[in-house]
Design goal:
By secondary structure, this protein is α/β, with parallel strands linked by helices. It contains 8 helices and 9 strands. Helix 1 runs parallel beside helix 2, helix 1 packs across helix 8 and helix 4 packs parallel to helix 5. The longest helix is centred in the middle third of the chain and has 29 residues.
Length: about 250
Amino acid sequence: MNKIALITGATSGIGEACAHLFAREQYNLVLTGRRLDRLEKLAKKLNTKYNIEVAVSSFDVRDREQVISNLEGLPEKWKKINVLVNNAGLSQGLDPIQNGNLDDWDTMIDTNIKGLLYVSKVVSNWMINNRFGHIINIGSIAGKEVYPNGNVYCATKAAVDALNKAMRIDLVQYGIKVTGIHPGAVETEFSEVRFKGDKERAKKVYDGFEPLVAADIAETIWFAVSRPAHVNINDMIVMPTAQAAATIINRK
């Protein structure tokens, strides 16, 4: 029987890349995200290409009731989750603290922290009952280093870093692995979302150097997941060669 991976935010970027990689490795998949059309299209593609089973569940991780009802509503066979990839997350705006948009703050806090907690609460209990599982939390270099105008986004990813460490401690007694993956600059829809659809401004973020791509992070996640049973990768920072720190990038 195939193992099962549950991936949040699977409609684009790192989440979608993880879906492709885990499908390639013959995992059955539970894919979640807000855009049902994208989920269904991806599910069909992966099923056809890799001959795996895919369940899709469309909900917003910010909505606690949606998270609980959609996940608990899955058939029992889908609750034997081997790997949870807590990928759903975003940034909104890039302003100094005094000019910050309160709605943007709520969106980041509700998605990056509370959404991760809601999903983890449900799935970690399944893993405890099953006595197996591996939780991958997608953080960011922003959770390790605060950068100008990053304030609330950095704070949410610092929270992910802290929660990753706390999960590791709380779940070790059940044999459940927990890993934090913290990317630097990855060229996905991230900057476009941050700048609310301004593609030109988003493109400039990656000018003059070769950033990471989503597949790089998916491969890093797979490295952590594919270690032997006695090995846990607690924490990993992954940067483009051209990026030494959050704000230090060698642009040609």
